[in-house]
Amino acid sequence: MGARIVKRFIDKVAGVTGAGQGMGKQVSLDLAAEGARVVISDIIPELLDEVKNEIESAGGECLSILCDVTSRKQVDTMIELTVKSFGKIDILINNAGLLIPGAIEETSDELIDKTLDINVKGVLYAIRAVTPIMKSARYGRIVNVSSITGKRGDNSTIFVYGASKGAVISLTRSAARALGPWGITVNAIAPHAVLTKLMRYWDEEKKRSVAEKIPLKRLGTVQDMSYLMMFLASDESSFITGETININGGYYMD
Fold first, then answer.
1. pLDDT for res 219
2. Is residue 157 part of a domain?
């Protein structure tokens, strides 16, 4: 017998940013498989169409919205369309992000602004937009994507990336404190060494070298990340809030 899929998200509406590929795509597919009506957003229409078709082909319900999270207006519109279509939003997965390798002296003003706009302001805009809706329902699950770099720093990405992910950890705690009284939890995940297109600058030798330093002796997968995000989005995690959970095979422990 195959593994039974537990339908943890029946009657739930979930919004996922950066849903066109990688972790965002995987968690969107998984949420839909467990019964959620999923609102997927990204800036690449072709990728959104692929994810939407995959969800609907499997019998799920999906709304796709083009959205650049650096635009407050577009984020607000995305949440408004979600409520207009489904009447509510129960779960928000802030997955959209930007990661670029480079040295400090190579980090232009434009890159600093773009990284902070996507990785920090995009998360702030989305949390602000869902807050009155979730407060009214006295229920909500918000899951942010941070990074190991937000906890320990990094010397392979541009240095503003680690700063942006550190900010996500702080705003996760702040939002958790503010929204807890309304039954809304806010948590984050801190991945490391996940095989996504963002890591395309790692060659095979780099991948082997990194995996060797990880106690579990392998790199992470988008499915690993989705499992944790789904747990934090479910009622199984109802007494966890303000946490940023490491998911890195034991490479970094705190």
1. 94
2. yes
